[in-house]
Write a structure and sequence with these properties.
This protein has 299 residues and is α/β, with parallel strands linked by helices. It has 12 helices and 8 strands. Helix 10 packs antiparallel against helix 12. The protein is globular, with a radius of gyration of 18 Å.
């Protein structure tokens, strides 16, 4: 059974872009993934993104992606939205992943802008609509030009929002002006995809977060969101400022690397990384501990 779908908050409000746990030999750790998923939902997440960038999707196989979705859906049931990352730079490949995810119970799809091949806006439009047409699942766009090389322009977002199953956008563009216009014109459910901008994006109409730091501070992020929603902007700002060391520390290097290190420090499932990602050095780990402690994270 899927969680309740509402147009205003189609995937909930606080979602974690979940890491993919691996065993010591680098194999997929499905038991660890289920334990981590349950922990994150218990901490207050409404949804989990699996097979996204933070899930090391570039280095997992199609079969691993499908098994991971199946396992996480099994672990959290109807307690949270399980959104499967299906974005690639090959539309046919993305459709295959989308249909496989739908087949094992995913509640929604995350579709990143095609990377490396730099399609024009019309190519983006056709890519996203083809994926949305391929299943009955609601779709969240993922706009991250720093990784993909191409932004989704506001006009394209407005066009895409006309599709009945394209219901949300994960914004990692880092441009509050463009975001404000796109939110106003598209009426998509807008999720911050940049933890440092979680609070600023709420102020211009975002409804929630797809977060990386929520691996370790979900209760604080939810408290910030609820304070802002209730009109207590001062309290929301105080929480945001308290978390600044966490936002900074978790992105001193690539976010998957620091997240897996932080989870290991807390005794939670994570495991090693797959090349080309590499573990933190002892010096980097020491700095991460300082950053997390400064933000109130218990290790």
């Amino acid at each position: 059974m899927a969680p309740t779908f509402t147009p205003q908050t189609p995937f909930g409000r606080v979602l974690t872009a979940m890491v993919t746990p691996f065993s010591a030999d680098g194999a997929l750790d499905l038991d660890g993934a289920q334990r981590l998923a349950a922990h994150l939902v218990d901490a207050g997440n409404d949804g989990l993104i699996v097979n996204g960038t933070t899930g090391e999707s570039p280095t997992t196989s199609n079969a691993e992606k499908t098994e991971l979705v199946r396992a996480v859906v099994e672990a959290v049931g109807d307690r949270a939205h399980v959104v499967a990352g299906v974005g690639t730079n090959d539309t046919r490949h993305s459709i295959e992943l989308a249909q496989a995810a739908a087949g094992v119970g995913a509640h929604g799809l995350l579709t990143v802008t095609p990377y490396y091949n730099k399609p024009p806006q019309e190519g983006l439009y056709r890519h996203f609509t083809a994926i949305a047409d391929s299943t009955e699942l609601p779709v969240m766009l993922y706009d991250v030009p720093g990784r993909s090389g191409v932004p989704i322009n506001t006009e394209t977002i407005v066009r895409l929002a006309e599709h009945p199953r394209i219901v949300a956008n994960k914004d990692a563009k880092g441009d509050l002006g463009r975001a404000a216009w796109a939110i106003a014109r598209s009426r998509l459910a807008w999720y911050s995809g940049d933890d440092m901008l979680n609070l600023p994006l709420l102020s211009i109409g975002a409804i929630g977060f797809v977060s990386v730091v929520s691996h370790v501070v979900t209760p604080e992020l939810r408290a910030m969101l609820e304070a802002h929603s209730s009109g207590d902007v001062q309290k929301a700002t105080e929480i945001h400022q308290k978390l600044l060391p966490v936002f900074t520390g978790m992105f001193r290097t690539q976010g998957v690397i620091t997240t897996k290190a932080a989870l290991a420090l807390q005794g939670l499932p994570a495991g090693p990384l797959r090349l080309p990602l590499v573990e933190l050095s002892p010096e980097e780990t020491a700095q991460l501990k300082i950053d997390l402690a400064a933000g109130g994270v218990q290790l």
